[in-house]
Structures are given as C-alpha cells and as structure tokens.
Amino acid sequence: MINEVSSLANWLDQSLIPKWLFFTTAVEMCRLRLMFALILLISAGIEKVAGEGEGNKCDVCVQVVKRLIEQLGNSRGDPKEVRTKFEALCRDLKKSSPEGVESRFCYLVGGHEESAAKTVMYLVDQVTTYKPAEKICMELDKKISGVCDFKYKDKIDWSKVDLNRANLKQLKKILASYDIYECPHCIEKSDYVELVKDEVRKRDPEAAKLLGISPKVEL
After folding, report:
1. Contacts of 134 (CB under 8 A, 6+ apart)
2. Which residues form the ARMET C-terminal domain (predicted)?
3. What is the pLDDT of residue 39?
C-alpha cells in the first residue's frame, strides 16, 4: 500500500496534470458515489413502505368479492348468476348497514338499483375470469376510480377473539368495524354475540371459519 501511494506521488510530480485537479476529481468521485448510495437507500425505503401498505389495499373490495365468490360456488363462470348474486349481496349489505363502507362500495360499482354508475358488468366480467379477489379489485380500481379507497375502520385480529369471553365493549367494537353502531333488539350480551356471528358469517367467511361459526341453516 505504501509503495502504491509513493508511486502515485511520483507520477503526480512528473505528470502535466495539476495536483489540485487530480484531488478535485477524486473528491467529486467520492461525492458521486455517496449520492448514488443515498439514492439507492431512499429507493429501497420507498419500496418497503409501498410494500407494507399493499397488504391493506382494496381490503373492503377484496372482502366483498371473496364473499361473492364463495356464494357463487360452481356457478362463478355464469355472468348472469354473478350479477344476480352480487346485487343480492349488496341488498343484504345495505339492509344491515346502509351507510357502511361495504354498502358504499356496492353503490360505487353499480350493485344497488339506485347506483348512479351502471358499471357492475366490469366486476361481473372480472369475477368470471376466475382471478383471485385481490387481482379482481386491482383491475376494478383501474376502471372505476375510488374502488380501493374504501377502508375498514379497525382491523380485527380474529386469532385473539373469543366471542364467548368478549365483553360488551369488545363486541361493539367488532360491530363498529362493520359500521354498525346500534342494535335495537339487543337486550343481553348474548344478543350482541349472535349479531356479531351473523355479521361475521355474512361479511368475512375466513374469520367465520377461524371463530368456528357454522353456516346459518335456512329453514
């Protein structure tokens, strides 16, 4: 290393290149390398933040579409059946929570009779392609502005929920996540538990399975 430095010094003494120019160039090279490294770090940070936010993107749309797909079963490839089931699902969502995010999502994509935009066939076409719900919602968001803007207020960690041991405050918090703030017919805690089960069963099939909520038997 000492020999290399000595050789460089001798070369500079004999060279026609001014020493100040050599050192200025070296400093500029170091500065450029530092700037390049900083840009890489910033880019990596931006990608990480974007990736972290991706998990919650379109969560309302994804949950509604997943529920629709589950209800369709083997008839998913039939556009007429998809539309009929979706509009029926939207009626149920509107009935349980008229101003809820899921009902407003239905309104945006044309799932309600009074929807201003009749764009429901965009959703129907995507569902019949057998794409996963996440992909369907990303495609819908390109066609219908605002599809991915709907967000649930609180993300429930269902693995930590025990409905039988939950207190009234916890049960109301779960209902609030579905934009349900009143239960006129609820008198006892068990009434709230049943309402939560009904809503989870309708709105989040995966959570229903995790909680051991069996499908409702139609009489």
Report:
1. 58, 62
2. 160-198
3. 56
Residue pair 199/180 in contact by the 8 Å Cβ criterion: yes
Dihedral sign, Cα of residue 19, residue 25, residue 28, residue 29 = negative
Three-state DSSP state, 38:
helix
**How many Cβ atoms are within 10 Å of 96's Cβ, its own excluded?**
18
CATH number of 59-143: 1.10.225
pLDDT of 1: 55
- Beta-carbon contacts of residue 105 (< 8 Å; ≥ 6 apart): 60, 61, 64, 111, 147, 150
**Confidence grade of residue 183 (pLDDT, cut at 50, 70, 90):** confident
- Kindly report the three-state secondary structure assignment for every residue of 71-117: HHHHHCCCHHHHHHHHHHHHHHHHHHCCCCHHHHHHHHHCCCCCCCC
Residue 140 pLDDT greater than 90, yes or no: yes
**162 C-beta neighbours (distance < 10 Å), count:** 8
What number is the average pLDDT over the span 197-203?
A: 87
180 by Cβ neighbours in 10 Å (0-12 / 13-18 / 19+) ranks as middle
pTM: 0.56
In the block, residue with structure tokens 């109301």: 172
- Of residues 145, 126, 138, the one with CA closest to residue 69: 126
Mean pLDDT score across all residues of the chain: 79
- Identity (one letter) of the amino acid at 79? P
